[in-house]
Amino acid sequence: MANLFLKQAKQYVATRPVYPPELFDFIASKTPRRDMAWDVGTGNGQAAASLATLYEAVVGTDTSAQQLAYATRLPNVRYVHTPPDLPLEGIHATVAAPASVDLITVAQAFHWLDLPRFYAQARSVLRHGHGVLAAWCYTEPRIDAAVDAVFWRLYHGSENYWAPNRRMVDDEYRSADFPFDPVEGETHTGPFQFSTHRRMDLDDYLMYITSWSAYQTAKDNGVELLDEDTVQEFAAAWGGDGKEVKTVTYPIFLRIGKGLKFTWGNQAL
């Protein structure tokens, strides 16, 4: 994951949607205690910053030091660079002690994780019986029929440049392996749907597209997804000179559960 975003870290901060307070309020309402939260794949720290208003202490981790360089600094948030091969003992030493975490969140990064390894880490650090794991993704933006039609042509044309893991996002995490019990007050683990909105002009919107991992992968292979014809199509669909600010809506899909108790293959977790 880290290598895909090295060349777009600044764009990622500037153009990605902001998660709504309702999402965090819902998640926090499901944790009996609010002492410690761990945000996995924290990136620029967006989710960690929101968690910091609800939890006493937050740790954000990421495999990309470049992403962490842009993360929001707050008094009760610390950031840790976690290489993919960091052993469980390293997690305990640098991230959280065993059975000390009330909430683990994974914002738009769940599909990149080595799930057996991650679930072993989660089971180790979550509070026994009460720890909650929440993982969510946002899917592609919606604006209006004209812009969306151009967007979907571009998106489908970019399929060869997305990592296979991306299909989990397209599926809204519905078929993801998520071996948890429902949290209090719920009968299933989701996905629960939320949405967030961002105001953008055409330049902002095109910058969002350039922040895709698929955009950079295509470019590295000599393909410009936003070629002149495609940009002109977007401009015509947007209308005017592209300076009009439009509301961009991102659907969000949340999986949430507690009590990780299962066997993955031959490995008991």
TrEMBL record:
One family name in Pfam for this protein: Methyltransf_11
Gene3D superfamilies: Vaccinia Virus protein VP39
Name of the protein: Methyltransferase type 11 domain-containing protein
InterPro entries associated with the record: Methyltransf_11, SAM-dependent_MTases_sf
PANTHER family, alphabetized: OS01G0307686 PROTEIN
Molecular function terms, GO-annotated: S-adenosylmethionine-dependent methyltransferase activity
Alphabetical list of SUPFAM superfamilies matching this protein: S-adenosyl-L-methionine-dependent methyltransferases
CDD domains: AdoMet_MTases (cd02440)
Methyltransferase type domain boundaries: 39-129
Domain of life: Eukaryota
